[in-house]
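Fold it.
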Amino acid sequence: MMNTIRPVLASWGANNYMTEQLRWAEGFYGSVRSYPSNSTVRSVSDIWYGAGAATYYTSSTDAGSTSASAMSAYFSDVPWLVAGKILLSDELATESTITHGYGIKFVSYEGGPSPGASNPSGLSRTQLNNLTIAYNIDPRMTNWMQSAYDNWTAAGGDLLNYFIYGGDFLGGAWNFSDPTKTTGLSDTTSPKMLALTAIKNRAPAPLTLGTSLPAVIPMNQSTQLQFLSFGSSKNTSFKSNGAKLIANPSAPAYSDALLIPVRVTSASSMKVKLATNMTSGAQVEIAVNGQPSGILNLANNNTYSSVSSTAAYVTLPAGLSVIRVRPLYGTVSVASVTVSQ
């Protein structure tokens, strides 16, 4: 018991910060060099057990008062990462795709519901403390937390850590204990603690992240939730003819790339083909969950008419996987990715 240490890469913002940290680690530790010194080749999964951001969530309009209408609106809404700006389910899909794309677990180092944490009404410390207590001990919090956790498991989340049992930090917005009780014992019956018990004892929500295979997955702007694109051309890569990728031959970890979440019900051997156009000297690496699985040498094609590549053969475990498409040399526009048996 308690004999395993699991390093986790923790970041407040997954998409901007964590992606660059993972790319750097892959590039730096992926080869032996004398300067900067690195004597042993390591994959990202050799360095970290998992990675993830802070999974704090609220409602579309953060808690600003304890009126019946305000509290009813809060608990009737779906969870948002930032009030009214980012759906929790969308952000979790992004983080899960990034972490699994590098072959590591999706871990939230801290998180949970935080009503009133942003203090949108400019309350005094005492007023804020009373407001957060009212929301945290409301019986509706139990089911609302379970709904948020369903977002987590549907996105392929592996380990969500919650913050905090008790205290007065920012008015106690994150507290799990019920300060109105005076039992003198650890509180295990507050709405938040009851939610943890229910989550522990219930079946997880089914996985929804990723395209169910076999499938043809288009690579264009209208289907961005089916894949992530990052690199030097990420802001201009989405065109009607597909996603444009540019290689960085001297530092492949920094080449443009596509991360494509997919799912299968049982372990499967499958083949991956690309439909490409506007191709010049392109050699493309296919990887699954951070592990290289094949290299495709693409014929030059200076038209917008897509041609099919040869196949890379991959093995997918049951559940969620992330396929990475990354050029090692040249440029290519990927119109679609076909994964079939």
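Helices lie at 14-29, 44-47, 68-76, 88-101, 125-136, 140-154, 191-201.
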